Amino acid sequence: MRRLALLPPLLSLLAACTVGPDYKGPPDVAPRSEAAGQFHRAASAPVDVATPPARWWDGMGWDGRGDPELAHLVDLALAASPTLKAAQARVLEARALVAQQRAALFPQGNATALAAKARIPTGALSTADNQINAALAREAITNPSLFPGGTPPHVDIPNHVTTELYNLGFDARWELDLFGGTRREIEAAAAQTDAAAAKVEDAQVQLAAEVGQAYVGLRDAQHRLDLTRASAAAEHRMLDLTVDKRRLGTATDADVARMETQARQTDAQIPPLEGQVEQAMDQLALLAGQEPGTLDAELAPIRPLPLPPAVVPVADPAALLRRRPDIRAAERQLAASNAEIGYAVAQLFPNVSLFGSIGFGSNKVDTLFRSSSLSMIGAPMLSWNVLDWGRVRAQIRQASAANEESLAQYQSTVLQALQDAESGLSRYGHQREATFQLAAALDVATRAQRLADARYRGGTATALEALDAERQRLLVEQSLAQAQAQTSNDYIALQKSLGLGWQPVDPARLPNPPDY
Asked: Which cellular components does GO assign to this protein (predicted)?
């Protein structure tokens, strides 16, 4: 009894043994950036070290107001995108794998029940039947007094046997995780679940940015289409005036041909822009998980291009490294690969299992549960494939190499994130400056058009000169519209590089798939 009392503490002590390297967290890849109070390229753009909002799209709009259509489209995409649903399904898959691995820590049982009735042929008995009848015939000849009437009886022995069998049993097997191989598998699976959840959050970041840029592309195409139509109308008016001047002898056929060529070239720009508007609508429908054409009526009315806020909060590099979901996913992948090394190392050690079975067996139902029908067995079992260490050693080296690969991928992800943010700040700041220059050029072109109109009304300029000034202003306005759209896209790309636009994913709150 004293020896049996020592067994549970001994098993607990052995269970506390987990071979392989313990995970000590990710390495410090960018110490200088983490220690810095701001980004290196922060001077290129009007930014603030304040904490940025996750819903960056709420800050885009015009006249100090947000764009409700943009917010609606992003929310619709985050709720219905098939891409996001696929990422969520991978989280549930990884979570189920954790439950499967944890179940291996507990005993596994199997219950059986059997009721059988068999009819078994007995060819040997048929042979005995013939032998007995032949012996009786010989005895009748030798001793006829034994058989009144002189004829021996015929003996019939059946040529089959009918039997019944009833059995109830239960057996259990418990594989003791003495060296932590199963626990390392659980550790790896849990880390993979966290990585899958981080990838869902990263998919949210990517999706919100794609919706924002597609929406900016739609409004930009609509605006440029409107300006191109206005420019085409102005050029056709100039063509009509040139034709009138040719009738009066103040313009040549070459002047008319030049103006007609210019007008037709502008006309040719309209169909591609109409195609860009339709393609942008279809892209937004796809991102929102809708059929093509579903959002056309909602998106057809022309609205102003959403512009970024005057000052952009970006926090600091250390906050970026904590916030970006792809960095957290890479770190969890690193933790999982570290646990896989421990699982491989555990294969070097013996495997100990406890096996037990209890059952009742009888050829009659009424005697099935008698003590004489009871059978029991219980035994420990040890298996240790000592001749397979070469293969196991190779698996350990393979797991170690995979861990080194995960480490390199984590380092690359961190450095790429910092590069994305720094480049995003640079692009946004310089594009914003170019947009300001074009806005100033539009002011000059607008003043020139007003002066030409005033001179035309005063009789000191021709109608052709006034129309040409209008056409030049429209060209500058088109360039400014393109620059503003690029500024908005660069702002969205900056938010994406900062890892904004996601909400925390709790695997326990995701809808479970049907349990068939």
From this structure: plasma membrane
Would the pTM count as exceeding 0.70?
Answer: yes
pLDDT surpassing 80 at residue 95: yes
Question: In the structure, what pLDDT confidence band is assigned to residue 466 with cuts at 50, 70 and 90?
Answer: confident
Name the more confident of 153 and 382.
382
Using DSSP, state whether 156 is helix, strand or coil.
coil
Please give the full DSSP string across 295-337, using - where no structure is assigned.
THHHH-S--PPPB--SSEE---HHHHHHH-HHHHHHHHHHHHH
Q: Between the CA of residue 281 and those of 7, 128, 144, 210, what are the distances in Å?
A: 70, 93, 114, 13
Tokens linked to 170: 């239960």
Which of 215, 186, 210, 43 lies closest to 103, judged by CA? 186
CB contact at 8 A, 132 and 155:
yes
What 3-state class would DSSP assign to 449?
helix
In degrees, to the nearest 5, what angle opens at C-alpha 126 toward C-alphas 121 and 128? 130
Look up residue 407 and give its two tokens: 């480490």
CATH 1.20.1600.10 domain range(s) in the chain: 31-109+178-352+391-498
Compute how many other C-beta atoms are within 10 angstroms of the C-beta atom of residue 404: 11
Within a 10 A sphere around the Cβ of 462, how many other Cβ atoms?
15
Q: Angle 82-103/181-248 helices, nearest 10 degrees?
A: 180
Query: What is d(CA 295, CA 288) in angstroms, rounded to the nearest whole number?
Result: 10
Cα distances from 139 to residues 126, 131, 147, 151, 462, in angstroms, run 20, 12, 9, 10, 150
Token pair 């005895």: residue: 139
* Region for residue 77 given its phi and psi (left: phi exceeds 0; alpha: psi -120 to 50; beta: otherwise): alpha
For residue 375, what pLDDT is reported? 86
If you count DSSP H runs as helices and E runs as strands, how many of each does the chain have, helices first?
A: 13, 8
- The three-class DSSP label of residue 196 is helix
Helices 253-268, 270-287: axis angle to 10 degrees equals: 10
Return the closest-CA partner of residue 47 out of 237, 279, 320, 359. Answer: 320
Mean pLDDT of 319-347: 94
Neighbour-count burial of 214, counting CB atoms closer than 10 A to its CB (0-12 exposed, 13-18 middle, 19+ buried): buried
Residue of 31, 38, 6 lying closest to 314 (CA atoms): 38
> What is the per-residue pLDDT across 372-381, written as a single tens digit (0 to 9) for each?
888 888 888 8
Q: How close are the terminal C-alpha atoms of the chain, in Å?
A: 47
- Percent of the chain clearing pLDDT 90 (strictly above): 47
Alpha helix ranges (H) inside 366-462: 389-458
Q: Which CATH class, in words, describes the domain spanning 31-109+178-352+391-498? A: mainly alpha
